[in-house]
Amino acid sequence: MSILINRLVVVGVGLIGGSLATALKKAGACREVIGVALDAPTCHQAVALGVVDRAYTSLTDIASVLCAGDVVLISVPTLSVPAVLQQVKDLVRSDVTVTDAASVKGSVLVAAEKVWAEVPANLVLGHPIAGSERSGVTAANPDLYVCHRVILTPLEQTAGKHLQLVAAMWQAAGAEVLMMSVAEHDDVLAATSHLPHAIAYSLVDTLAHDAENENIFRYAAGGFRDFTRIASSDPRMWHDIMLANKNSVLKSLDLFTDNLARLREAIESSDGEALLGVFSRAKEARDEFTQVMAAAKSSSETKL
């Protein structure tokens, strides 16, 4: 693959940013990858692991040499994004492409409007729909985005050249790029990602504090393990996501709570017909989802 990006600056060298860095290095799509982390040990580790070519503890150390053809990826916890955006405004030239990987786009949009008054043309809001319960620079995986989707939420003022460069960057990492509005993204992700995480965390927390079931985890079967795997994800990251996407998450939680109450009522009243209806509809929907995902994966693998 030919070089797409001159320098990629990853602010936040964890699972998401580190995986993109290693993916682009593996694909030969980037001349140099530079990491920015909070502390020196993480910087040294990122370089030692080959995730980045060099690393600094501040964007100030590298911002002055950035120019057109370079990309800054903001990959920090959602509630930390505004502070990084302020640094970008103060330090980075307007011809440098800037993008993010936050799981909530509305909060980033609001933050950008506060920092710049009007969102600049070189800022492309985005979100890779891929992850792992692992976190940190050691979790970086060059294949994390292969056959996964990345949602970009461009605005009217987003410049085409910056949007195209960010899209090509994610495609070079093996991802399928989709476009969506900010509002639609936050509603969809609240239902498909944020709600399941909230349920998994709540379930494990509930059972862990049940004094009458001390052995419950010892005897848990595979279904429990599979469903609650995501409760091993980074707590700080999900704390930020829930607060940043509060309205959409609450809407999804209310819908789920209402349906759960109806399920409880059906069990209490021994309404077998209602129970069977819920379970049958859920199975049909899940089977259809599995088929759609299998078809999408097959299509992506064919293109690769």
Write a brief caption for the model.
The chain is α/β, with parallel strands linked by helices. Helix 6 links the parallel strand 8 (about 150) and strand 9. The two termini are about 10 Å apart.
Sequence of secondary-structure elements: EHEHEHEHEHEEEHEHHHHH
- CATH H-level superfamily title of the largest domain: NAD(P)-binding Rossmann-like Domain
Q: Could you tell me the mean pLDDT?
A: 90
Q: Specify the structural class.
A: alpha/beta
Which outline best applies?
Answer: elongated
The fraction of residues assigned to DSSP E strands is: 5-15%
What share of residues is helical?
40-55%
CATH topology of the largest domain: Rossmann fold
CATH architecture of the largest domain: 3-Layer(aba) Sandwich
Low-confidence stretches: none
How large is the count of helical segments?
11
Instruction: Please indicate the count of domains.
Output: 2
Q: Strand count, sense and closure of the main sheet? A: 6 strands, parallel
* Annotation, overall tally of beta strands: 9
